[in-house]
Amino acid sequence: MTANKSTTINDVAAASGVSRATVSRALSGYGRISKETVDHVRAVADSLGYRPNALAVAMRAGKTKTIGLVVISDFTNAFFDRATKSIIDRAKELGFRVLIQHSDEDVAVERVAVETMLSNQVDGIILVPASKTKHSHLTPKKIGGKPVVIIDRRLDIPRFTTVTTGDEVAAEEAVAYAAENGHKKLGFLIAVPGTTGFTSEEPEIPITSVQERVDGFAKGVTKAKASALWIYSEDKQEIAEAAVEKLLDSPKAPTIIFTSNNDMLLAVLKVAGDRGLTIGKELSVVSFDDSPWAAAMVPGITVVARPVEELGHIAVTELVEAIEGNTKPKEIVLPANLIKRSSVANLLKSK
Amino acid sequence: MTANKSTTINDVAAASGVSRATVSRALSGYGRISKETVDHVRAVADSLGYRPNALAVAMRAGKTKTIGLVVISDFTNAFFDRATKSIIDRAKELGFRVLIQHSDEDVAVERVAVETMLSNQVDGIILVPASKTKHSHLTPKKIGGKPVVIIDRRLDIPRFTTVTTGDEVAAEEAVAYAAENGHKKLGFLIAVPGTTGFTSEEPEIPITSVQERVDGFAKGVTKAKASALWIYSEDKQEIAEAAVEKLLDSPKAPTIIFTSNNDMLLAVLKVAGDRGLTIGKELSVVSFDDSPWAAAMVPGITVVARPVEELGHIAVTELVEAIEGNTKPKEIVLPANLIKRSSVANLLKSK
DNA sequence: TTGAAAGCGCTAACAC
DNA sequence: GTGTTAGCGCTTTCAA
Predict the structure, then answer these.
(1) What are the chain B neighbours of A272 within 8 Å (beta carbons)?
(2) I need a labelling partner for A321 at 20 to 30 A (CA). Which of B1, B110, B131, B285 fits?
(3) Quick check: is B236 in a domain?
(4) Could you tell me if residue A349 is inside a domain?
């Protein structure tokens, strides 16, 4: 329990009978210094259990080798948990630590999170912005000129490097696939942060990736000359389930429901289960974002899979590049692709 | 692009015509200082966008208000993602930040992670240890007397406060429940880190919570006078699937399979799906750890649910208490409970 | 009520 | 090849 203060460079210097500067040189291996001194100092440092104080180093160097990650919601989300992991892993490869905060899709929280990051002197920030329009906390002055990489969605200004996925095209493809299977009445259950309850009137969608999915879906529907029902829901299980009920009770009830994320998918599965509708037979479903359970379930869920790990990897790489050199903002779009499993019934064959 | 160095207390002092000391007093609100000076300095600080350098504060204060969290594997795990979130949330409430590293169930990685934490001067550490026996990196000297809270599992030494769940009892209960439903041939698919491939010989189990599940299961089987097959697998989808195949092809093939975590559950679902076995009918399953998808699936999966959020909450509370005062190590065990859904067939009724 | 100065642990320019 | 010294940004005695 002797909470001995950790050993500092001074202790090592004293114990090895040289100056602090020499210790520093020996340990960091720079400057002119005799091999014997190096060996001696290192031995002493080891025996003392010396560990450099990263704070002091950072303070001296003016950089922390730390990346701030501000992610919406939590790790319960099948997309962000994987993104977070890949970001941490890639950061580690490049010698960076990651400080994580989540914004819960709330701009006010995001603002504080960014503040916290900056006050902790992160070298750069990776951000999943809660809103495409509300970014007054991201002016160059506010962020002290620190590099920022935006992922998953876009801001309505092109100031930062952005890494997103081609969801519009993928959504359109997914609809085409549904049409090929004979689906003429489609539904789309869309989680929209900021919405209360659910509605079929299109609300403000503050997230560009969601907007893209909606747009791609709409295009696909038009091309396929199909009919469609849109329903925008709060991202909450019970609400989403009620929304699904409404969808299924509608006179133009869809034979297939698209869901904008995994939470919404779960709502569909739940309601279908309660009603005794077999997925892939009486009701079809396609979701955005793959997950281990969507793949392992029976039936396997057809999804628009996005290259999450790659996205995280690239985001870190770009950010570190921006931290270390000077780079221009880029727009990087990775392809999303449809993984066909068994959750879409073939209506043509069965008739 | 003008990467202006962020404004320091010196800038504020200069701009408001007072000394650094006065600025510090005004901003932190301590000591004797006139109200006007306070207002003036605050106004200037605001207009300059001054933000205290957390590094410098931490260095001066000798504490960082940061907790280090070393978690195994990643956030893909239904247990650790929720634990992580609850830890971050609770830490925030108490004014602490969280630095996260994962060990991938590898003691060597864990060791480095702890080093990193300490070199970043975290005030305390929450750890999910990869091994109950290998903790030479956790001696009081090595961790500089910093408080550590162990979660989810135990070490074989009682040095630290530990927050776990009562898995043995819960496992036994779960078996009893299976027996009540007429299951006489049980299987248990257990993920064991460090194992390669799969085996039915009990290997060294370095994780106490897993050991408890195995023990509880065994007790339950004995009590129920049932027969059982154990299979220990690498925590890898394909391997686990092969293990399930083996289990099902055995002459004493179980009617119900217990799985030690969600990944293993997925393997069972996959194989069952491939073989056309309906869960909750031809094959029953019970898993450890609840998840949104296990609840929403059809059939709903019967699980031993552990109070994850509570566990995280308590771990942080205990750690912060230890950081701020001096507390003695405690052993906290939270109850796990069986959530009955539809994945366990009633063999008595159907006959 | 305010300012001057020291020092947290570290590194690097500059002496010797 | 090694030591001295200054200073990163901050808070807090101690003096005034």
Answers:
(1) 298
(2) B110
(3) yes
(4) no
Residue A30 phi/psi, 5-degree rounding, is: -140, 170
Q: Domain for residue A71, yes or no?
A: yes
Residue A3 lies in a domain: no
State pLDDT tens for residues B43-78.
999 999 999 999 999 999 999 999 999 988 755 577
Shared-domain flag, residues B175 and B297 = yes
> What is d(CA B81, CA B309) in angstroms, rounded to the nearest whole number?
10
**A269–B contact, CB cutoff 8 A:** yes
Cα B94 from Cα B83, distance rounded (Å): 17
State, as a whole number of angstroms, the distance between the CA of B169 and the C1' of D11.
Answer: 53
Q: Report pLDDT digits (tens) over A211-267.
A: 999 999 999 999 999 999 999 999 999 999 999 999 999 999 999 999 999 999 999
Q: Are residues A206 and A327 in the same domain?
A: no
* pLDDT 10s digits, B190-236: 999 989 999 999 999 999 999 999 999 999 999 999 999 999 999 99
My answer on whether A192 and A114 are in the same domain is no
Contacts of A249 (CB under 8 A, 6+ apart): none
Same domain, A72 and A202: no
How many A-B residue pairs are in contact by the CB < 8 A criterion?
155
Which residues constitute the domain of residue A259?
167-306
Number of domains in chain B: 3
> Which of A:278-297 have CB within 8 Å of B?
279, 291-297
Q: Assess whether A174 and A301 both reside in one domain.
A: yes
Please give the single-letter amino acid code of residue A287. S
Strand D nearby residues, CB < 7 A: A 17-22, 25, 31-34, 36-37, 56, 59-60, 62; B 5, 8-10, 20-21, 23-25, 27-28, 30-31, 52-53, 56-57, 59-61
Q: Answer whether B164's CB lies under 8 Å from B153's CB.
A: yes
How many angstroms separate the CA atoms of A100 and A68, rounded? Answer: 6
The reported pTM is 0.92
